[in-house]
Amino acid sequence: MKVLVTVKEVAELADDFEVDGTEVDDRYLEYDLNEWDDYAVEEGVQMNEAGVADEVVTVTIGPERAEETIRMALAKGADRSIRVWDEALEDPDLLDVETKTKILSAVVAEEDPDLVLTGVQAGDDAFGATGVALADEIDFEWGAVVNALDMDADEGVAHVHRELEGGVEELTDIELPAVLTIQTGINEPRYASLRGIRQAQSKEIAPKTLDDLGLDADAVESDLKLTDMYEPESESDAEIFEGDAGETAGKLADVLREKGVVQ
Amino acid sequence: MSDVLAVTEHRRGELRDESFEVISAGRELADDAGGDLHLAVISGDVDSYADTLNRDGVDTIHTVEYGEEFNHDVYAQAIEALFADLEPTFVLMPNSVNGLDYAPAVANSLDLPLVTDVIGFEYDGGLTATREMYGSKVETTVEVEGDQFALTTRGAEWPEAEGVGEADVSAFDFDPDEDAIRSTVTGFEEVGAGDVDISEAEFLVSIGRGIEEEDNLPLIEDLVEATGATLSSSRPIVDNGWLPKNRQVGQSGSQVTPTVYLAIGISGAVQHVAGMKGSDTIIAINNDPNAPIFDIADYGIVGDLFDVVPELIEQFE
Ligand SMILES: Cc1cc2nc3c(=O)[nH]c(=O)nc-3n(C[C@H](O)[C@H](O)[C@H](O)COP(=O)(O)OP(=O)(O)OC[C@H]3O[C@@H](n4cnc5c(N)ncnc54)[C@H](O)[C@@H]3O)c2cc1C
User: SMART domains annotated for this entry (chain B) (predicted)?
Assistant: First the structure.
């Protein structure tokens, strides 16, 4: 069985940052592997180790810079990677779900996986929609917010738990081929070993343009346009304690006594 | 007419709060656009649900009888069929876990632009939606091109609709393609019961990823000991296996309503806040002055928890 895992490099904002137009300047951004994708990669690698999968391929839509993050996924045990980028992707400040869906479905057409794993959401734009939209596009079955997975490859069924709200899980049987969006906590993502990091250097990261995938620039015409970005106005009237650690802790202790929760 | 089709949600025989919130959001949008508000109620005891959903502002409730519980294949097909019938300008769906499981498929099938997790919108012939990025650190406005749109609305952003409405209830003639139903819900499982019930606690000391390592847990346990508090946490602490699931506060954890909620090294992501915003008094210790937790806190310390917590312990020893 072949598993395709979507891997996104996401930006995190520094504690202090400034918004410039509809962007945060690069110097306030730190790039990292998307938290949810880390669990998706781990799930794929574990299936490989268990002999359920025989190849784990990652796919990333991202500029060359993303290769550092992709190497992380390779160092954790993915077999090879595909990175899609194109001049046409540089302009839109927000890639909508439809664009990502079109690109990823072209990759699926080339790779023909039996299972696609994505993260539930990306920590930066938090659309939480790509996996399920992709499934619809490629006519795979799907399951969103999966926090337990038991593959029955012979029967062609994935037995999953979907983590609902309020501590309730739904048990669902999903026919393969399928796309599953993976929730944090499903496994324990490994740290890349030194050996893994060394091996990752020689693994393939295949760059692809839209043209390579049989797409043209129309594919990335987004229906969504970011028109403004700002720090939300806080409606909070929080009283912030001033002073050094001792003083602030003293004031906090006073509040706790006042509220009667500590004697 | 610029009508709105809003999709409701239920689980194990009960309508969920999202259903009543999506009515309010739908009414707002229908008023902006000058159209009617249609509700879809799919699967389960649809007639009794329709009775309860008949609140102020709803024009028509479409009941779709098919199966007992949520199944995304059924939902997607039913919504697509309703869409073809009603030709609404907007399809509104809750940004719940189940919403995440069908809304993107619906939008993709119908070729509608999709904006998820919206916290506000405006329509004046064109649609502008407001949503957050980077873990709630920034808000954005998004202009959406198109004539018809799919939106998912964040929970608890709109009030629950009240009052008794005068909606027409209409049974929708639904003939699904059974071959396209390729998933089966086989049951439910409650998780997280355990030694302590954090929802009963009066004083919660809650820790997040800011504590960095499991080795730092004893520091917090000392604080808990010194103050007689109950220990809870955000999700990553549980994901890492440092605390059991029954300590997790939030959307997928527990809802808590203590007298005091002390959030230490917790950023205040929306899914966390969903579980603790009902606390009487919220206090946050965080070294990031922009952390969203300060937006809902009553008191705050902007500082390093490793400096503040030892001092706090000293106050009670
Ligand atoms: C479907 C779904 C369901 C979810 N359900 C839940 C849920 O039930 N509960 C939940 O909590 N999350 C849930 N999440 C995850 C949620 O989105 C966040 O990822 C999570 O709440 C973040 O936890 P955190 O605040 O501990 O970590 P972070 O967001 O990483 O925040 C850590 C904070 O600690 C601060 N900090 C770091 N070092 C220090 C220091 N030395 N001193 C003081 N402060 C410091 C940082 O400034 C930061 O603000 C869910 C997500 C999804 C998609």
Answer: ETF (SM00893)
Decide if A255 and B281 are in contact by the 8 Å CB cutoff: yes
Ligand 1 pocket, B10 CB below 6 A?
A: no
Chain A residues near residue B73 by CB distance under 8 angstroms: 141
Instruction: Give the C-alpha separation, B10 to B70, whole Å.
Output: 8
Q: What is the C-alpha separation between B307 and B214, in angstroms, rounded? A: 17
**Is residue A235 in some structural domain?**
no
Tell me if residue B112 falls in helix, strand or coil: coil
Centroid of chain to Cα A151: 21
Query: What is the DSSP secondary structure assignment for residue A163, as one 8-state letter?
Result: E
Q: Is residue A242 part of a domain?
A: no
**Dist. CA B105–CA B93, nearest whole Å:** 12
Fold assignment, B198-316: Rossmann fold (3.40.50)
Task: Name the residue type at position A72.
Answer: M
What sign results for the dihedral spanned by CA atoms B227, B233, B238, B240?
Answer: negative
Between 1.10.10.10, 3.40.50.720, 3.40.50.970, 3.40.50.620, what CATH number should domain B4-180 receive?
Answer: 3.40.50.620
Q: Tell me what pLDDT residue A93 has.
A: 77
What pLDDT is attached to residue A92?
A: 72
In a domain, A262, yes or no: no
Domain count across chain A: 1
Residue A230 included in any domain: no
This model of the complex carries an ipTM of: 0.97
- Is omega for the bond preceding A92 within 30 degrees of 0, making it cis? no
Q: What share of chain A is helix, strand, coil (3-state, %, to 5)?
A: 30, 30, 35
**One fold for B4-180 and B198-316:** yes
User: Looking at CA atoms only, how far is residue A202 from chain B in angstroms?
Assistant: 31
- Ligand 1, atom 50, lies closest to the CA of B271
Whether the predicted pLDDT of B28 surpasses 80: yes
- Sorted by where each begins, the domain ranges of chain B are 4-180, 198-316
Find the residue in A nearest to B132 (Cα). A125
Query: Model's pTM, two decimal places?
Result: 0.97
Considering CB atoms only, which of A126, A130, A245 is closest to B133? Answer: A126
> What is the whole-number distance in angstroms between the Cα of residue B287 and the centre of ligand 1?
13
